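[step 3/7] fold_predict: job queued, chain A
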Amino acid sequence: MRAKLFSLAFFISFFAVAVLNLSFNTLTAEAQIRTSPSPDIVLEEEATQSAQEEATPAAVVERVVEKKEAITEPTPEVKGKLERYLSEHPLSPLTVTNFLQHAIRGAIRQGVPANTIVLVLLFPLVAGIIAASRHIVGIRGFGIFLPAVLSVVFVATGIIEGLLLFLVIITVATAARIIIKKLKLEYLPRMALILWFVSLGVLSVLFISPGLNLTSIMTLSIFPILILILLAENFMSIHIGMSMKQAIQMTMETAAIAVFCSLVLNLDFLQKFVLLYPEIMVLGVAVFDIFLGKYIGLRLLEYKKFKEII
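[step 4/7] structure written:
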């Protein structure tokens, strides 16, 4: 009981500190706006305006956003890079072996983002990698869906920022499940209350991200955040019936697989290869999955586990 009260008090204190920090920064900014600078200061600021603009937080965020070219966002930089690469490689006449290339370029000319097509074509490859990590290597993780979606979220947020949000959500959801366990609620109301805690935890991260200079989280769109929040329900459903040690181990394995798959999705040469030779990618992934399903031997980690028997 003391541990539960301590967890609840810690969470409330963390949220309160974040709110107070945001309120203090807002009041400080308002006080600075009310303060009227002297004429000398105004002249000096006008003389050095170009230098100051480069040092403002907004300019820093703008530069960071301009440099970030996440394939999950159909920004002009990403679309221009991929479409420019296609324009440098003209198509041969339509045949049975390149019909998909013609279809992709026709869709792009009609306005379909090139990065969306790349993600859709690479997603089966990510699913195949996750299946191989479990079927061949022996890494368990939480199925195929959760690591695959997490990998896309990590591409959108950045690996460090995505892992931070992921750990915050899992920690808050686990603590909330322990706290409300005594209430003996039904499943759906219990999950709704857990998502309430998770939303407050993510809100706290958004509050403190400017102070920690987490620009990727500050400029993040709502959809990766919503996906992470909604994935909390899946994690909590899988955690039921597990010990804390098993849950932590599987969560770490899931995060490791998702990070590896996000690195694969960010490979520039792979994105270009998918656009130029989509037929090879589609057929290659299908053949890989078939051969993977035919494997019935021991997993690599099992060789270490049963080393003495073998």
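[step 5/7] annotate
The chain has one domain: 70-305.
DSSP finds 16 helices and no strands in the chain.
exit 0
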